[in-house]
Amino acid sequence: MRDMRIYKRLILMLMMACPFIASAQLTMYDYYLDVTAGGGLHSIQFSPEDGNHTPGSGAELKLAYRRPINDQWSWSAGFGFSWYNARTLYEDLRLTRPEVDAQNGESYEYRVIFTDWKEKQHIANLEIPFVASYYYPLNEKWTLTAGAGLKVYFPISNYFKITRGTLQTKGYYEHLTNIEYENLPQHGFFTQEDCEGKATLRKVGAGVTVDLGAYRSFHHSDMSLYMGLYFGYGFTNLGKEHQPLFDGKDYVGVVSSDRVDKLHLISAGVKAGITFGFPRIYPLPEMQHELEMEDENFAFILAGEIERFEDSELEDVLRIARELAAAEEARKARELAEVKEVVKWLNNNVKVEFKLGEAVVQMNDEIQSYINDLTHYIKTTPGRKVIIWGHTCNLGNEAKNIELGMQRAEAMRNLLIKAGCPIDRVMARSKGSSEPLVPNTCEENRRKNRRIEIVVK
User: Which of 12, 356, 391, 404 is the most exposed place for a label (fewest CB within 10 A)?
Assistant: First the structure.
């Protein structure tokens, strides 16, 4: 009962924390779906009295919903299935207890002898993990991650099976004949070579889980691969009843018997999987309509206009074609001008500024929304390119400022690429301190000049 109260409190705390965590601002993606599979050591861990225990191998399959908290932290919850195994060997185990013969009332010693008795145990669980994860990007493609949390599991299949050996029962009548009776089934003395059954376990357990791995992302794709290591330990004692290993009629299995005090689950292995990212898109102002007409759509409209005319009106057809082409070019020019106005407004109102001597983008909600908007526009508008200009204040020599400006432009370029912007359509440039936004007359102005500006072409 005490263990159950602890589990209920842990689950209640996690449920109370989830709404606050979920309200955190997202970064590159709104949420992720992780599908992983792994295998390795999955042992039912216990110490059988007078027996030899061998850990077993197993596997796990999990589906998790993962939501970022910020650039470096996320939380996740999901469900999965895991399989655990172990083996127990009794080379020569002898159990005795006093009994009374029901036919003649004589007392005797009931003997159970296990010879080379090998039992295999199996447990399958439904698991619900709650994990907090930390991320450290190595470059544009690889990100290291480490996670830790709690898991609740429910045994859904648990059984044992004897794979070899013999179980023999005998009766020793010391006061009557001083001899040992065996192979008398009518008196309960027999030999058994195999059996199987269901183990008796607690209905719910809890444990800890730890992951260490890496994500490999791909350009032009919201999917990434995961490879890593995992470790799990169940701190719940799953042993429920402590019956005699053999009561004269039924063999109950090692994990359900009084030969085992505590039973835990332990896992360690490698796993791999696929992660699907779901970005949140914030449409650019005044850009709700389709941004560019496809060539095939234009050809379809042109063909429709041509069908209205006879061969004798070819001159009119060509004129209409030229007018349509000019109108299309004008439309594209207007849209590009609108986008440039939007980007200009964003450059003036969404400040991407830097600390003195640093090239780290100080992220906030507006900058993240800016990155998502611009990435969506570039991905859906063929032919458009982004040039990121890095700027500095007038402190330091110009050679260092050119280098620092390039580092700042590269920092924003990496964020756009990580958000899904095509790598060959994002360029970084530096102007150093040559184009200040305001005169470098005070620290406030110099802070404004430490910036990046984005141009769309």
Answer: 12
